[in-house]
Design brief:
Layout (H helix, E strand, L loop, with lengths): L10 H14 L8 H16 L6 E6 L2 H10 L3 E5 L15 E7 L8 H10 L1 E12 L5 H11 L13 H10 L4 E13 L2 H10 L15 H11 L9 E13 L2
Parallel strand pairs: 1-2, 1-3, 3-4
Antiparallel strand pairs: 4-6, 5-6
Helix pairs in contact: 5-8
Length: 251
């Protein structure tokens, strides 16, 4: 019997964090830097490639805003709620000449399978672009969590994909051409709590199947201290978010 992919992420936890993020987004000045950055980058890529999609599908963080921009350019756009789309099952009808996935593929258990479903939803000659949190993300947060746990680190942050692995995944999924590249966001924070609040507000908190044990008071103190190590004169540090973008063409 062929075994399926390991269950690293919990679909229930993934859905719960989306629901909570939507609620938190109603607060004044809620963090929205990821959606804004993904939308701007996706539109820049579409413009650079001189794409003029007739029928497009947009799903994920900021999909409604991206869809509205594409409609202004003359495309017929289907905006799909990520809660209504099982990424590990076949996607809607395969007649899209552009599919834009914004931050939705980083927490699927069968990423190769999800990319195959995405490719199959394209019409011949269609292009898929998928952006997700990449391997170089949150180095300061990772260091802080290791310091908090000491000699027995728990799994608190998601495993991620780098650009080299992304290209191999696109090829494995059957795309005729593959481009995998990454870019970075640099964010300033004055506390670990502020970063964690921003992650929750954007649905970037843990969706792991295995729940890590709560941090002890001493561990949390170590995490706060390590996170702010080397802070500037304003008491802030730079945290890095790497965004991996996979672009694939279907024959």
């Amino acid at each position: 019997m062929t075994e399926g992919p390991p269950t690293i992420f919990s679909p229930a936890r993934r859905e719960a964090r989306i629901v909570r993020a939507r609620s938190l987004q109603q607060a004044p000045k809620a963090a929205d830097w990821l959606a804004q950055s993904l939308i701007e980058d996706m539109l820049d890529r579409i413009d650079f490639m001189r794409l003029e999609p007739r029928r497009a599908l947009a799903v994920g963080i900021g999909a409604e805003r991206l869809g509205a921009s594409l409609e202004v350019q003359g495309a017929r756009v289907v905006v799909t709620d990520p809660l209504a789309l099982n990424h590990e099952q076949p996607w809607p009808t395969g007649d899209f000449d552009l599919i834009a996935s914004l931050g939705t593929l980083a927490t699927v258990n069968d990423l190769p399978g999800a990319l195959i479903h995405l490719r199959n939803a394209l019409r011949p000659g269609g292009i898929a672009m998928a952006s997700m949190i990449g391997a170089g993300s949150f180095p300061r947060l990772r260091t802080a969590m290791f310091a908090a746990d000491g000699e027995r680190p728990a799994a608190r942050l998601h495993p991620t994909v780098d650009a080299q692995a992304g290209a191999a995944l696109l090829q494995r999924a059957g795309f005729s051409q593959q481009v995998s590249d990454s870019w970075t966001l640099h964010l300033r924070y004055g506390s670990l709590d502020a970063l964690v609040a921003d992650l929750r507000a954007q649905g970037l908190n843990s969706a792991l199947t295995d729940t890590a044990p709560p941090l002890t008071r001493d561990g949390l103190g170590r995490a706060h201290a390590v996170f702010l190590d080397g802070a500037d004169k304003d008491g802030k540090v730079i945290e890095t978010v790497e965004v991996l973008t996979l672009t694939g063409w279907r024959n």
